[in-house]
TrEMBL record:
GO terms for cellular component: endoplasmic reticulum membrane. It is an enzyme of class 2 (transferase). Keywords: Endoplasmic reticulum, Kinase, Membrane, Transferase, Transmembrane, Transmembrane helix. It comes from Cariama cristata (Red-legged seriema). This is dolichol kinase. It comes from the Eukaryota. The chain crosses the membrane at residues 12-41, 61-80, 92-116, 122-141, 153-171, 211-232, 244-262, 282-303, 324-339, 345-365, 386-406, 426-446, 458-478, 490-517.
């Protein structure tokens, strides 16, 4: 029997795909629709494999495969980026958007082929659909991409295959197939871009903050892989291992990551970063303000743990308590988006690197803070943290930051887009910081009418839509760079569809919702 929430989630994704291609219809539209149809069928094969334990790796069990919503994200991002840059006359980034879309389609298709290949008996109809979708995609790529672009797409696919085999083996139950597609596909693309740009460095070409993002992401991933392999052969919880961890982190940071970044930006990375952070008085004020917010977030963690110690060992943080961190993140990001988006961009990269590094310390039980972090953070675990890593806070940061990082600055006159596109950097704030938070708080406290097959409530979803509309109005008041040009109907439709997706999806909503809202706004 078909799962009703999965059908509803799929229907919402199909509507979003059709909405996008009603505005942007070209040869890639046929590819996207074909990919969506085959992903819809294949995700039920993945769901069956997960239920029977027949998947190659151990995936997160408290959710469905999420293949369809995840398969659409990267292709749609590439397509809307292509259209935006085409209208701005930036040919380089127009071609880059085509490469992104093609890569996303091929990676998603590969994951579908894996599911079809390991399903017994072989699903004939699904095989035919996958073959037809693959033929359409490959035929379109053949007539759209240059030889160098085809090689680039295949490079990303190869990196994705190897990363999947390594990380899904090392990190069981951390991802669903859809989440693995998004996370590992994104890391694969970033790694390929970094290698490509490192081999073709032209002095003065490229924005240093873009290089900073690429090097930071690849650096922390390589650091994690290195220590994971190392601690297979030695106990990570001893003082000797901990000293070795800190020493090798310094060696890899100063001996590999810093020289790599120096090669890309052609200046000392530490001096550049310090000069960038304290360049203006506004940046100093923002940094002081963010430090106070970070201290208050730490205060909440310590207070809740003290409360657990005094009440009960089984005490867990409530939904409202966890959503308090969403309010702190909104208070962090909104001033940065209004006053200095470049500073917010770099600060978010630094926070991501720090969050992942602290997770390494917790996971490997590195002294002196590893065991303390384990004790402090276990209070905030939920069903999505079923694997060895705690990722929900990292997903929250990613959900807020990705619209800022993926904003096509080079294709935006004066640093902003017109119409609904002006809200693209705010997609994370609206979808996660406002919508998801309000839906969760009001739904859990006052909601009575549940959406069929889910724990989410009608009241929570409607309140979330209303809250996001109010947030858009406040953005118009306080951010003079935003000009919506009467695109209010599209904004309402975008917010409503993404809020409905939040009600039905079992994937990590902090990661999925901002990307879909960004796609709709672009």
């Amino acid at each position: 029997m078909l799962n009703k929430p999965v059908l509803a989630e799929s229907l919402i994704v199909f509507v979003i795909v059709l909405f996008v291609h009603a505005v942007v219809w070209d040869r890639y539209s046929w590819c996207t629709i074909a990919l969506a149809v085959q992903a819809f069928y294949v995700q039920f094969k993945w769901d069956r494999l997960l239920q029977l334990g027949g998947a190659v790796f151990q995936f997160r069990t408290a959710a469905n495969s999420g293949l369809l919503p995840a398969s659409m994200v990267i292709p749609l991002l590439g397509i809307v980026m292509k259209e935006r840059c085409k209208s701005a006359g930036i040919v380089y980034f127009e071609r880059f958007g085509i490469v992104v879309a093609s890569t996303g389609m091929l990676v998603a298709l590969f994951l579908s082929v894996i599911a079809v290949g390991i399903t017994k008996p072989v699903p004939t109809n699904t095989c035919i659909l996958t073959g037809v979708a693959g033929s359409i995609i490959i035929y379109t790529m053949k007539h759209s991409l240059t030889v160098s672009e085809v090689i680039e797409v295949l490079e990303v696919l190869l990196i994705f295959v190897y990363l999947s085999m390594i990380l899904l083996y090392l990190l069981p139950r951390c991802f669903t197939p859809g989440e693995a597609l998004l996370v590992l596909g994104g890391i694969s693309f970033v790694l390929n871009q970094l290698i490509k740009r490192s081999l073709n460095v032209i002095e003065g070409r490229g924005d240093p903050i873009d290089f900073f993002l690429l090097v930071a992401v690849v650096g922390v991933v390589l650091l994690g892989l290195f220590f994971t392999v190392l601690f297979i052969f030695m106990d990570s919880g001893t003082w000797i291992s901990s000293m070795f961890f800190h020493m090798m982190t310094a060696v890899l940071g100063l001996g590999v990551i810093m020289p790599w970044l120096y090669r890309l930006i052609q200046r000392n990375p530490l001096f550049w970063l310090l000069q960038f952070l304290f360049q203006t008085q506004t940046r100093v004020y923002l940094l002081v303000y963010w430090t106070v917010l970070a201290a208050s977030a730490c205060g909440v963690v310590f207070y809740q743990n003290a409360k657990r110690s005094s009440e009960s060992k089984k005490h867990q943080a409530s939904t409202i308590t966890r959503k308090y961190f969403h309010f702190i993140v909104v208070a962090t990001y909104v001033p940065g988006l209004i006053y200095d988006r470049q500073l917010l961009y770099v600060a978010a990269v630094l926070c991501l690197a720090v969050f992942i590094f602290l997770e390494y310390i917790r996971y490997f039980r590195i002294k002196p803070f590893g065991q303390t972090l384990r004790h402090l953070l276990c209070l905030f675990l939920d069903e999505r943290d079923s694997g060895p890593l705690i990722l929900t806070h990292i997903y929250l940061l990613l959900g807020m930051s990705l619209p800022v990082w993926l904003f096509p600055r080079s294709c935006a006159p004066k640093g902003t887009l017109s119409g609904a596109g002006a809200l693209v950097p705010y997609a994370g704030v609206l979808a996660v910081g406002v919508g998801d938070t309000i839906a969760s708080v009001f739904g859990s406290t006052m909601g009575e009418i549940k959406w069929p097959g889910t724990k989410k409530t009608f009241e929570g979803t409607m309140t979330a839509i209303f809250a996001q509309i109010i947030a858009v109005a406040l953005i118009l008041i306080f951010d003079s760079s935003v000009n919506l040009n009467s695109s209010y109907g599209w904004i309402l439709a975008s917010v409503s569809l993404v809020s409905l997706l939040e009600a039905y999806t079992t994937q990590i909503d902090n990661l999925l919702l901002p990307l879909y809202l960004q796609i709709m706004f672009m």
